[in-house]
Amino acid sequence: MAALTRPNLFAFTELLKPITWFPPMWAFACGVVASGVPIAEQIELVVWGIVLAGPMVCATSQAVNDWFDRHVDAINEPNRPIPSGRIPGRWGLYIAIVWTGLSLVVATQLGPWGFLAALLGLLLAWAYSMPPIRLKQNGWFGNLACGISYEGLAWITGAAVMAGGALPDARSIALALLYSVGAHGIMTLNDFKSIAGDRRMAIRSLPVQLGEGNAAKTACWIMALPQLVVVALLWNWGAPFYALAVAGLIVGQLFLMRYFIAAPIDRALFYSGFGVPLFVSGMMVSAFALRSLH
């Protein structure tokens, strides 16, 4: 069979990983809600923002990561588009570059704040994967960059865009940063499937640095503690019912965390599927809490 000279549509879509677009799109929506501005007043900006957060910037980050991780993926996940040859030659790099440019074009629709936020997100995406910076070489730095980009930056951008480009209030920024820290733990969940390749390629993910059990416990603490601070803040700001709702979601996560910690490699995907939705639900509850306080 002749070798492929260009990717087909299915491989191209798989490279951009639509399933990963949800977190930044959700975080942007949380920022929109937290702003207190009626969505109907800025519906066009909301749509542009959601497109930018997911199908553009997040998709770019996935293409960039797959290109620079192609040697690791050949060990861990050889069926992915680039190591399998379904994205042949240097097409993976070309797609990453083109999608970066298209993301910046879309970002112009969101004004100066939206453009600068997109630029920062794209810089973090390239810095995360590309040598010599390659933040993902150390799980502490790489996961933090992802958490900030996927959650905090998207949340703050959503709130700022709704406010006409003004900096969101301190309460919204505080929640965005707390959920960014919590997302560090979520990013660690993705590292359990890649331990063998990470060790061979000297990528110091938390499971490689700390061992499987300690990394699982660390990830759970990092996810739980910021949420507990969110509960305390919401209570202090005069939103007790919202605080109790977030607390209830944390309790659900704690039960699932115990199950995950007992066998982290086998159950990381399970926790991603059932525990992470409780985390992101708490984000939206917190956003509505701020909306109620405006």
Q: Total strand count, please? A: 0
Distance between the termini: 63 Å
Number of helices: 14
> Number of domains in the coordinates?
1
In short:
The chain is mostly helical and 294 residues long. The chain contains 14 helices and no strands.
Structure description:
By secondary structure, the protein is mostly helical. The chain is 76% helix and 0% strand. The protein is built from 14 helices and no strands.
List keywords for this structure.
294 residues; globular; 0% strand; mainly alpha
Which SSEs are present, and which pair or pack?
Layout: H1 9-16, H2 22-34, H3 43-68, H4 70-76, H5 91-107, H6 111-129, H7 139-162, H8 170-189, H9 195-200, H10 206-210, H11 212-236, H12 240-262, H13 264-274, H14 276-293
Helix pairs in contact: 2-3, 2-7, 2-14, 3-5, 3-6, 3-7, 5-6, 6-7, 7-8, 8-11, 8-14, 11-12, 11-14, 12-13, 12-14
